[in-house]
Amino acid sequence: QLQLVESGGGLVQPGGSLRLSCTASGSSLSSLTIGWFRQAPGKEREGVSCISSTGDSTYYVESVKARFTISRDNTENMVYLQMNSLKPEDTAVYLCGDGCFVRTTVNWGRGTQVTVSS
What's the Cα-to-Cα distance from 44 to each of 53, 78, 117, rounded to whole Å? Predict the structure, then answer.
């Protein structure tokens, strides 16, 4: 089973930046579409962004366009989510998964907490 591991979360002030990382323990991500998702307390999990296996195709939910950038380095077995101009409404647990949409994602990481607050 694919074991995904996220890192890079933390507490940041509004307008700040964070970079999240996703890797796999004992498996290669290079052939997989990888997505970033988030779940805030009391809310459903939502897809934030995803990237194709080669990195040629990306998707962003409307609320993060022009602020977040997804990328990957298959030589390092890593997928990144650069988050800029963070807003309090971005506060959530961020998870990576092997899909682009919640309903089609099978394997999930445990998540990393992102808190945007002054």
Answer: 26, 26, 21
Q: Per residue in 7-65, pLDDT tens?
A: 999 999 999 999 999 999 889 999 999 999 999 999 999 999 999 999 999 999 999 99
Exposure on the CB side of residue 96, measured as CA atoms within 13 A: 26
Q: What is the DSSP string of 21-76?
A: EEEESSS--TTS-EEEEEE-TTS--EEEEEE-TTSS-EEE-GGGTTTEEEEEETTT
Which tokens belong to 48? 């934030």
Mapping DSSP onto H, E and C, the string for 62-111 reads HHHCCCEEEEEECCCCEEEEEECCCCHHHCEEEEEECCCCHHHCCCECCC
| Residue labelled with tokens 């809310």 | 43
The distance from CA 53 to its chain's CA centroid, rounded to whole angstroms, is 15
